[in-house]
Amino acid sequence: METTRGVWDAPRAPPRGPATPVDLSGTWNLHSSDSFEGDTLALGIDFATRKIANLLKPQKVIEQDGDSFTIHTYSSLRNYLVKFKVGEEFDEANKGLDNRKCKSVVTWDNDRLTCVQNGEKKNRGWTHWIEGDELHLEMFCEGQVCKQTFRRA
Fold first, then answer.
1. 29: buried, middle or exposed (CB in 10 Å: 19+, 13-18, 0-12)?
2. Global pTM?
């Protein structure tokens, strides 16, 4: 007696564990920035600092080991360092930015690395992703969105 397999009997691939969708590692130089002023205004950064920051051409150095990240942002005004593991909430002190503390969590949204920062400011965070040879960054805060593009150094 011959048996036939129905669709429900088809062999299934074993479940996959968490995968890192993309490698963001590298040294990246700012190429373009759109609406930076609005984002810094929403963060409550003072006038003089906003004007100076708008002239800067920061460099990002991203170190990635699986889902563990270290992101250095260097500029002639201030440097910023953040370390995190995807999916784990961490305390973030935005010293050198707006000097606020928040609870942050970073997750993968397909091939985009997204951070939600919970604190004084509403709807705050950022998203990184790569298109072609460019690293994209969207920073958002209280309805303002800044879009930046970086190129490999």
1. middle
2. 0.81
- Amino acid 77: pLDDT: 85
Q: Which two tokens stand for residue 146?
A: 């800044």
- Residues in contact with 34: Cβ distance below 8 Å, sequence separation at least 6, in sequence order: 146, 147, 148
CA–CA separation, 118 and 104 (whole Å): 6
Q: What is the mean pLDDT of the chain?
A: 85
Output phi, psi for 63, to 5 deg.
Answer: -110, 125
Q: Strands 124-131 and 90-93, how do they pair?
A: unpaired
The continuous run of DSSP H or E covering 37 comes out as helix 36-42
Is 134 within 8 Å of 150 (Cβ atoms)?
yes
Would you state the pLDDT for residue 117? Answer: 94
Say which residues have a Cβ less than 8 Å from residue 153's Cβ, sequence separation at least 6: 26, 27, 28, 29, 59
pLDDT at residue 3 greater than cutoff 50: no
**Whole-number pLDDT of residue 19:** 60
pLDDT for position 5: 40
Q: Whole-angstrom Cα distance, residue 31 to residue 38?
A: 18
